[in-house]
Fold:
Amino acid sequence: MEWYRTISLALRTLLRNPLRSFLMMLGVTVGIAALTTMASVGEATKQETMRRFKRMVGTYDIVNIAPGAARTRGMPSLTTVEPTLKFDDATAIAAEARTITQIAEVQNAFDIDVKHRDNTTASAIYGISANWLEMHGYFIDAGTPISDDDVASLARVAVIGIDVQTALFPNQDPMGQQMRIANVPFQVKGVLVSRGAGPGGGSLDNIVFIPVTTASKRLFNRDYLTTINAKLKDPDRPEAAIEEISAILRQRHGIVPPGEDDFTVTNPRATAEQVTQVRSTLSTVLTGVAVIATLIGGLGIMSLMLIAVSERRREIGVRRAVGATRRDVMLQFLIEAATISVMGGLAGVALGVAGATIAAIQQDLPPILLWSTIGGSVVLSVCIGLVFGLQPAWKAANLDPIEALRN
Amino acid sequence: MIEVEHIEKTYRRGDGTPVTALSDVSFRIAQGEFVTVRGASGSGKSSLLNILGCLDTPTSGTYRLSGEDVSNYSDKERSHLRCRRIGFVFQSFNLLPRTTAVENIEVPALYSGEALDRDKALSLLQRVGLANRSDHFISELSGGEQQRVAIARALMNDPPLLLADEPTGNLDSASGESIMELLSDLNKEGRTIVMVTHDQAIAAYAQREFYIRDGVIASDGRPPERAALSG
Ligand SMILES: Nc1ncnc2c1ncn2[C@@H]1O[C@H](COP(=O)(O)OP(=O)(O)O)[C@@H](O)[C@H]1O
Ligand SMILES: [Mg+2]
Structure:
């Protein structure tokens, strides 16, 4: 029998028994809907996490050198890192490394009290080199950024995030105002453009930037760095820079290879991918559950098809008597199973896209339509129909025609 | 047309004991003959017709259809024979429910490999006197009309051989007679017909009658005249 005839026969047969067809579809619909929703939300979450991570680190075209061996996840700060990474190390890397174009020094701490008159808040304090803001794509909204002069002269100047402005200077222009960071007076010289939420959902705007020299000598009194950022000459080859910088630091710190490094060099893109990888483990599990739901839908198709085969014995006998081969009957039932499964799958995709859109709106994620998921769902439902239709179709094809026609 | 030699058919019951439905059956039927097979219930009439119709294979013996030995044909080969060379008419019509008359007639054409020909199905419907019933569902037709649709279906692929197993068995005598008139006409047009019945009056439409008793052809000759029966 020709294909389109087989398919149109399947459609007509299925339409003749709408309730059963609906029940056959149901399991696959639910499974595929869950699958589509899960995959879309998972992908949206992943993309959003990557975006937020990018927003936090500002650029992927750098490597970050932090003190301590293979430090665990979390931002380095003065209170958590080992005092092994010095200003001299930064100078040496800048002078010797060929794979990078510039470096920036960072000395940072979190949860430091900042004050203006009676207004107090706790913020992240970042002592930075003058090139840090530009290197990371942080922009000034008002005022001027930290300058080389500020760094050279250990100036007590600060560039603040919008959250700090809101907390300390409500309804007034912060520019030129005094603020105290851990009781040390600073003058506000700039306000940053807002950066929104970070990968963990927290604000990236509760931050104060000051010259790294000021931080070291006049605020924290520490001579070690929490991070050195190095801008890559070739953004596509962070590994080369990681190798080169590691070699320089090992030599300076007297580390001989079997011995453990007392520093870690990472590329933020790799870190971002690791972070989202961890998140998507959860969505992999959920996707597995949805696939199992779809398979259970397939079992539903199988059992209802088996019932249909018994009920339609006479029809099968008639078709065999007038010339249908086993193969014709087999195909008829297989196509029927695949058709109902695909219809269920398409309904599931529609529901899933709707579900994903609602979830995206609720969670403030960008709604995304994943063609790969839609295509995958259709392919999956075809396969489900064919696999679970196999046994009923085989049973139908192997009915003895005389037996099937007997009253 | 049909050459049957020493055919035997033995079934196995559920418990494994053999039942012989046909033993040492031999005959020839020439093209254009109208033969009835008569006998008591359980005598083996349907078993014989199923073998002639390639729905079943003999346990032993040979069956030649138009000179071709089909006794050992595969399931697929027999399906093709049923499709193009044999038309079947059943006692219980065996039409597809919830399907229109014309769609039922088209079913054999689905399997013949040829393009569907709606006009042909409609002309067959006209041939059996149901031109105005093409879009009626089977459930809307009387028994006699359903059997006409079944005959039209049997003719769809133009088979030279028509087999009918008690085609009037479920009909009142008036509808039964008109079905027999139709079959006679088809025979006069040149189609070979083998029909099973246990009704002598019906057998009288044929030119030749096999009488089967316990799986053996007990007699092979002219059926009694219709006039003699009705008189
Ligand atoms: N599939 C079968 N299995 C076992 N016995 C069968 C089967 N089909 C027919 N028979 C037996 O074969 C004999 C002939 O049956 P059948 O050809 O149907 O007779 P008729 O059509 O003349 O009534 C009967 O005794 C019947 O019980
Ligand atoms: Mg019988």
In short: Residues 45 and 363 of chain A are 9 Å apart (CA to CA). The longest helix of chain A spans residues 268-311. Residues 61-266 of chain A form one domain. The two ends of chain A are 27 Å apart (CA to CA).
